[in-house]
Design a protein that fits this description.
- 2 copies of one chain form a homodimer.
- Chain A contains 14 helices and 10 strands.
- Chain A is α/β, with parallel strands linked by helices.
- The first copy, chain A, has a 5-stranded parallel beta sheet, sandwiched between helices. Chain A has a 5-stranded parallel beta sheet with strand order 7-6-8-9-10, sandwiched between helices.
- The longest helix of chain A is centred in the N-terminal third of the chain and has 24 residues, at 23-46.
- The termini of chain A are far apart.
Chain lengths: 353, 353
Amino acid sequence: MSTSEKSAVGAPGALMAAEIAEQPHVLRRILASYAEHLAPVVARLRSHDTRAVLLVARGTSDHAALYAKYLIETQLGLPTGLVSTSTYTGYDARPDLRGVVWIAVSQSGGSPDLVASTQIARDRGALTISLTNVDDSPLSEAAELRLPMLAGAEISVAATKTYSASLLWLWLLVRSWSGGDIDVAAGVPDWTAAALDRPEVAEVASRYRFVDRLVTTSRGFGYPTAREAALKLMETCYLSAHAFSGADLLHGPLAMVDEDRPVIVISPAGQGGRMLRPVLEQLAERGADVCLVAPRETVARSHARIPLPSGMDEQLAPIAQIVPLQQLALQLALSRHYDPDRPRGLNKVTRTT
Amino acid sequence: MSTSEKSAVGAPGALMAAEIAEQPHVLRRILASYAEHLAPVVARLRSHDTRAVLLVARGTSDHAALYAKYLIETQLGLPTGLVSTSTYTGYDARPDLRGVVWIAVSQSGGSPDLVASTQIARDRGALTISLTNVDDSPLSEAAELRLPMLAGAEISVAATKTYSASLLWLWLLVRSWSGGDIDVAAGVPDWTAAALDRPEVAEVASRYRFVDRLVTTSRGFGYPTAREAALKLMETCYLSAHAFSGADLLHGPLAMVDEDRPVIVISPAGQGGRMLRPVLEQLAERGADVCLVAPRETVARSHARIPLPSGMDEQLAPIAQIVPLQQLALQLALSRHYDPDRPRGLNKVTRTT
């Protein structure tokens, strides 16, 4: 199949390919226009006496929420949790949430459990904020304050551009809330463009053509990337792709890693990469086949490698880090004759209660 | 290999088998003696103006912490989060934690990241509580208040009795803190004894003899059981065992489930089981091979089944639910000629930073 056929409308993966490629453009659009949407939200947050932050999301958006949790813990120093919606929708928890900031993230804004738990949170006194890509969604109606993701319509079932857009929005939100400098984000669209279409992705897709189970790992700000990469590989290639934080991997699951189960290690520059060194050493001892996704200058032994742009800010790097892994999922799915735009058993809007 | 040979000291899995079997006894011991240890902790908690609860743990203990998160959200209505220690140990977060209750759970109490983050939390004003099985561990030294797990020495690398002991302790802690009735816990040792040595476990172990990847799922209070069962299968049988909450499974990973990837569904009585019904329906549509772990009276189609005792309280049921799944991991490991007491690549005390 030629490249032009692959990208033709209706060809397998054409939508996912186009939406991945669109990311630098989406990120530029957000940077150009976020301020007007964010200003009233940040004004409320800065006058709000916040005792804790709760985040609620599902699937890909849950990985964006996990990223926000790291940002909030490090930049704002507030106790932060990811909500299990079932405590609200199943077990009828009605906690006193005065002083709590509640952030709900969803591409569609349509999943009943997110809508119901956000309504309950608002009724119980939380300051509720939604971040959705579909305007006027039930979730944005339920929340007091709303942020528009501005990613443009996302049609492929496998979410890509709404993930990077969510990360950038959440970074802008936390950074503005903490009063920090946002200029460093100006580099994000170019980093993301530089991470697109790496020729090494095709080499790894070929190496993994017959793999049926693999592990992804990282630490700190890179860990949400490992989670999201695993989800993309599961939903488009039907692989058993298992994400672990590097520390959790050593607390048990390391036993299942052997020479026949490849490990994708996302090693950011900075502290996350330093924390991963003992993990890389133990993987080498176990004979694991490692694909290193890291800036070009990172020194570590590996069997395959996908280079990332140099000089990225560690907290913003996840926005560009995910791009070659989205493309790996796409290429691997196509090599197996699956259509990543229409994974078996999935719809674009998942409705859970 | 005869049963007596299997249980001989030094035989593969002998320690794990003995420690699994010991659980009703351990739980009885805790119920007989918890009050003196818990009273001063609960007195402090009830006079403490708590704004949020943070839990910190790794591996098996992290699943106990997740269980406690559900308990705290439903019984106490407090915002609750699971801590990413790397924000403290890697990114030097030093949040103001006055008003925060910090609960650290660890069998050994020795992992440096748990100790360091608990010291920081205490310095930053959190009311810190440790729950460890090793007395006078670095973690219990770091915390202001300490609870002894009282499980007795755990030698097998695969943790079993310290998991059920942790669940019971955390239930007793939350229930006493909320002022609720604790009499219902009196049934736990007998439920756990009734869950031991189910003959159906051997049938499932035989069915799964050649499986290399499977999925576990549940919802609500059963979800930590799904996570812990997957970890046991990973660390003793080297399977790709992947746990999802039923809702998260539908948001993407469902695509990878097909007729060749068995799914273990832990379906509690009560609300958790009701929330799982749409998940069971979608699994049936995808032709999944389902093993149902559920009370005998639960009506649902499945290909294999492990019955649980009837009449268990939904919030306490996880203590008995895990038992047949621990035994499944043990039997499956032995059938593959692995020694679950000494999984490859693991030590009893994992030291992460």
